[in-house]
User: Fold these one by one.
Assistant:
Number 1:
Amino acid sequence: MDASPYYSTLGRGNESQLKVDDADGLLSKWPLFLDNSFVPRGYAVALVDMTGTNHSTGCPTVQGVTDNLAAATVIDWFKGRRVGRGQDGAAVPAPGWFNGKTGMIGKAYDGSLAAASAVTGVDGLTTIVAESGPYDYYDYTRSNGVIQRGNHYVASIETAPGTLTDFASWPVPGAQPTQLFLTSGANAGTLSLAPQAGGEQTTTFTDSTSQRETAMIGDETTVTANRRVFLSPPLAEPVRISGTPVVQLDASANKTSTHLGAILVDYGPAFPRVSRTSDGVQTLTTSNSWGQASATDNGCYKDVGERIDTTSVRWRVTKGVLDAGHRTSRLATTPIVADQRYPFSFPLLPNDYTFPAGTGSGS
């Protein structure tokens, strides 16, 4: 079973396939390969329209109760515990092919629906294979009070293009907390393992709401009006980060509301890395068939491959933002006073990344 809100909108799979009905209102084209591959092997496949989507009645609620109960309700129908009805409202008997066991699969929202079905404890759901589904909608839509979309998932770690490594825990075993200090410099400042000697050093810049990330991380050795850069010396050996970098600042603003942001950057020669474009995935021109076909569903799907970046010499490793009003709580806003200094601490997005020897990192 794959329960989804997308069968009539975004579609499923890399080719965004939609459900297609025949003249009698029966499904004639099934998105993805599940039917082609599993039905000939003795399985039944159910592609469930989530509440309020496609042929299902009701209203979608962004993972509210009705969304989360949609697939469990279908399993109740499978088991004969609930009356199912067709588009005309007539009762539809429970399917005779159901053997009492259901496995759910799905990516993104589909994966969340699978997890939501599991926690209901519904009798008849045996297992789920959920991939990359949101588990915390605050973290999915906000970061430290700033409204955004930050997708950051960790199932295995891709340590190089095409190389996935499994770890028993994460951050990876052996990772140690390491503190770096922002210190002043002639142009760009520096990242150091020890605080700067002497009196306190301060710096000032003017925020620009139109400044793009490319401008923030570009021309790193030049001081500009709208950002500050701190660079490490070239690395004598590879350095791996595994976990959640945290930025700690004392700062003031000349307004009562502002956002603070930081970017961790790898400055150095280009080498193969998985591109961020389209989540690092590209659709290839070749295809493979995944099982039996029908007149309307040939069972063939385009192959996919990784999208590799081999040219970037400024690579954003991770980043983070903070709404100054949420410096003490993500739930409540506490305004700042203009020109008054406050301590701020905020995490960057979790990451696992190795800086090669000879490169420099910046923030």
Number 2:
Amino acid sequence: MTNGPLNDVAATTDFTRNPLLAIVVIGASGDLAKRKTYPSLFSLYQRKLLPSHTIVWGYSRSRLTHDSLRKQIRPFLQASISESPQNEELLQSFLNMCFYQRGTGYDDINAYHSMHSSIGIQKKAVEKCLKDREITSSQRHQNHLFYLAIPPNLFHTATQTITQSFATIPQDSLRILFEKPFGRDTESYLHLSNSLSKLPGIHESQMLRIDHYLGKDMIRAIPSLRFNNPWARAIWNRKYISHIVISMKETIGTAGRGGYFDQYGVIRDIIQNHLLQVMTLVAMEEPETTITSNVEGMRDAKCRLLEDVKIPTREDCVVGQYVGYKDDEQVPDESCTPTFAVIKLFVDNERWRGVPFVLLAGKSLEEKSSEIRVVFRSDIGSRNELTIRIQPENEISLTTNVAGNDYGDGMKQETMVLNLKKETEENHMPNADGAYSKLIYDALKGNSSSFVRDDELRLSWEICTPLLHQIEKNRPYPYEIGSRGPPQAQRILDNDDHHHGRSRL
């Protein structure tokens, strides 16, 4: 394999069109793999979306066998299906596809070679069984998808060992999925990115960085809502929009993740990735068409938007920490890590100049919700709002002015709601949402627009890093569990001269 550029065909090869597929879960004994990766693969198997001859190999340092791995993941798979003989047969059929390889570390090339050999033996057995009935000469190779469910400090080691031990695989038959976090700031991200880009045998187009928010139905619907509706095209600009609030609120605290969370904080954990990604979809220009002429159109449009985002200052941000956060034994007593943050951003382009984009995220707040509120300008004292709700319901609502009663009582506001089926009801996906399953399927299909490109991450870190370095010198405001966050946060909109009418965070 070479490290040169891939053409569009190689970068978007559809793995589902080839019956032979090996999925390798690196870090198979970890919590992420058991709770997300394997259940998501099982969901795809239930829906017959995996190639007909798929095998799933797990790799980690734990002393497991094929059978003990299957026993470990079984309860997490059972949680997504009802009890019945048919479902038990389906579950057992999937487990029979799952195998395990132990290594002494993520650089144990002998263990990777052993796994590669076992995969090759299974491939030959399938080919012999199929003969020429189902598999064509162009499909005699086997595609490989590696899912790295491991900490980012192991990305370089694992990727290097993969490319060395699987070096005989054609480049367009290998893809690697990476899980966040991708660095802590611009410098650490560039170090990680440069270390991967210098590896022989792997190209940027083969590296797929997961942001699970990009797998959520309502997030995926934003481009269609904006660009396929004439009314949205007409009003989606600074002439009509006062400000936009993008929020993700949680009622729980760190929930046993205090040690991990304290290293990152809410801006790194949620705003720099999830909410900035949502903002790019809400604010970007329409991507250049389409898959045949520009496979990177969506990601190009997102990068152009990020390039226009002005770097926020300390005055554009309020951070808080809920009372009791430091009671977690994993959190240092002197911790200044924010569990709440609200940041106001401005986009310096013709469409959005002067319109505040307010990104809000917090733990232990008054409600569990994720939403996008598009607040329209008004000179008559009442305001129209379009709300795209991501959690807990999938719905779109419009608050608008209508006539009062027949006795001339003027005008009143009403909210029209379009309820959409929950992902769990519509798609029977595990783990309360089907985001991971959809993203794994996109990875198999070669849909790169669902993943975060290297330059997107660099730009998002360049937006957030100066602010992060400033706020780390200050203690966050305290706020009570179950509140709306620190009262000081409201000044982000109250003191803003650009929006019309009072808005509440």
Number 3:
Amino acid sequence: MVYFGVFFIFLLFILNDLNQLHHNYSGLRLLFPIGILLLIGLSIYAVVISPVSFTFSWPIRLLTSLLSFLNFVLLIYTLFFALPVKETFVEGSKQPLCTTGVYHICRHPGFWFLAGVYLFAGLSFGKLIFLYLGLMVSICNFIYIYIQDQYIFPKLFEGYTQYQKNTAFIIPYAKRSK
């Protein structure tokens, strides 16, 4: 059930993007925040229901907890502060293309931060199911950002094709044209 929930959540994200691309109905813009809330709820559920699979010493648990929190902060910054929030999440399809800051490093920097949250939290909690959940979320997220990058964003953002040529996909600084 947990893994099916991940597919459903990412389907909500894709439907939100398609709405921005085609109709931009204000009610359907709620799909993205609903998906985020469901992902948070599913993650909490996975932590609560699963037994501890392994443990580390407290310094390692503290380090992995701090790394998870750092990735969480960077994810929040990337999604909600590096982008113009009102245009991106309230007005929908009228937002400008962001090519500065973390979006200058690669086109989808949030991929790494989301994966980092799950990896380090799973290690901190010592719960194998949470690591599996993180792997499933990361795979679905990769597919989602690939769909965004190849089909949605080139139609949604003016200049996205040039941005693709000048900025790496997900590996920071991996591709630059002069």
Number 4:
Amino acid sequence: MPNPVPRTRWEPLHASRGLSGDVEESNERIMDGTMEVGVRTTESPRDLFGFRLIAPLALGSMLNPVNSTMISTALIPIARDFHATVAQTSWLIGGLYITSAIAQPTMGRLADCLGARRVYLAGLYLIALAGIAGIFAPSLRALIWVRVLLGIGTSAAYPTAMKILRNQAAMTASVEPRMALGILSMSALSTIAVGPALGGILTGFGGWRMVFSVNLPLALVGILLVFMWIPNDETKPSGFGKFVREIDFIGIALFTGSLLTGMLFLNDVPHPKWSLLVLFVVLGILVVFHSLRKNNPFIDIRMLVSNLPLTVTYLRYGTFCLMAYGMLYGFSQWLQGGPGLSSTKAGLITLPMSVLAAVSALVGGRLKTIRNPLICGTVGLVFAAGCIALITSGTPTLLLTLLVLPFGIPQGICSNANQAAVYAQARQEELGTAAGLLRTSQYVGAIVAASLLGLLFGKHPTDHGMHSLAWVMVVLSAALLVATVMDRTLPSAAVSEQHE
């Protein structure tokens, strides 16, 4: 029997690049006792996952996080134009996150059925449409629906990017594209951080509608790059029949209902509607019962119960995101409503913090442990929240910039460490579901943050509201620090070392 050809050098005959000059010969491939016809390629893994493949995927993966935070410096101008309160404009935040919490895993399943490239392009078309609609939105309600459309479109990027990378690796039998995956992760974390500054600059330059319209050219560039550089889907779409059978629509409806009723209750806590709280609890119970009865539920309660360390990581990350997004949205609104700064100046004040967050995200990605970075990042969170409690409307601009600067450090470090914890704690066969639920915990944290701001700020951001937010973050971050120190299930070694 001839020796098997090394797996890292093979590409199926049906590959979309075809038989070109980089193909040396065709041979028989022996694997698992079966014969397959394949061709050997001279391309290295670096070439296979190079700029042309990564650029369109990284661009798309940026659009959801940048839209989530870019609007923070546009909320006050939007509220002024539509005579809305902070609680009402919080639906611009919550609408995107509720949609994203549902659409991200759903788009991933749709990509499995119809093809990742097709679904990715469909998402970019929706983003372009949302960019146009944002220019002409006549009311706050219409603008909320634009954000919902953006949530659906941008949610297609990350799961389809992951699938395109996996397809490329499988097609060439190459090793895991760690650098490509790292670029996607860093792109998302960096754009979350720079979103407020970018939103402030755009709003100051052309008004808050620029925050929406900028999605049109970004989507068009993404569509062009996909047509130029992303390989066609190798398989024909299996159709909507398989999609309908495999998607847990009942679970999605129950989960969506619980998020909506919870947010509606939190948005008007001073005048509580207890019927909403009762409905939230009932829907939550139904989510649990439905999950336990279904084979492939939208929220896998069995996985959460059987893997408590993973569940703790979701709670920890959701709490961290509550504070991170509360700070990103709350501080930007306060700068315009308290000191009365323009959107551009508000964005520029947060820019150093954003740059520090991006740098800390890159540093966090290179750390080889999980437990210690989480503890250090949470200590930094306590300190940063305490600094926020010192600011007032009379604080000089330079001092404001310095007081919020420490908040950038825990953003990158904690995000990377929690992501690494999921990969270390989840079972291999559940890793896809586990990664999706991490995103869901992030969105739930952001939704609660939006509701909390509506409660603390009321109709207008004030010093008292900002101080209240700061002390809430101090208490939460201190509790998070104690819980992290006491959590002995956190792996202390590097993720890669654990799987060796």
